[in-house]
């Protein structure tokens, strides 16, 4: 009975009701090199962006994206590494940019990779391996110890993976499943796949001080307080997230924080509709102001969802229609609860 109840409450943490400012559009992304914009970080120079296509890692600087109405590429740094499917960017504790070569729409890769690009010097490639088979993932964080945190793109219950130590060398370094997370339901409209898109993790970011962690879907950003700077504790703890709606993006996958705590979002171009760079002013402060509940502790790592990542075989990485893991989990939970109620009721004599 206790096990059934424990499984039943393994649902998304209800969000905190906070009125987030509406995103403000800064510029349209019309450059062909960023037609598949998928990851961003922000520093004093501007927005650094990566697209999930190409045979080389190219970090594009959009120096005027936040200062005016121009999303033009002002500089490009090319890293001589041939990625399989680069999906996200994150900032390491030493300021290096980490590229998440973790895309795997067909779920057939033996290893994924992160590429660490310091401000000066050669880039470093680190291959990673999952403990439970291939996954598609578009969200990367880096903890204060320099360990990559990968969140998969399963619809509903996404896996949270981290290495036991900072990766050293080409590897592969084993990833460990440290927990699963489900985004709360949302009525925000947008994205390429309707309601399923609001439960699909397409990007991640951490504030400059590490005290706020964001996961995004095709329709929203969810901000999790991280008072000790640990992204895993923030995602798997009992603190409630703050919802920041990002409506109307064609295929929103990129997210970042400015040094001042503003949230920056970006979208791919889809069906001829260009993506935009948009900003939600002061977003990090919304989550940082939410006090965590007393006795908050990271949840133990549950058994991963046996359902595979619900994604299409096409290169765009958009989940295919069908029964998502979230819906399947809800049905299972409903059946379990119904069984619990039935066992508690007196039996009728026949």
From TrEMBL:
Region (Disordered): 290-322
Top-level taxon in the UniProt lineage: Bacteria
Residues spanning the membrane: 325-345
Alphabetical list of InterPro entries matching this protein: Quinoprot_gluc/sorb_DH_b-prop
Keywords, ordered alphabetically: Membrane, Signal, Transmembrane, Transmembrane helix
Signal peptide: 1-19
Comp. bias (Pro residues): 290-307
Protein name per Swiss-Prot or TrEMBL: Uncharacterized protein
Lineage of the species this protein comes from: Bacteria, Bacillati, Actinomycetota, Actinomycetes, Pseudonocardiales
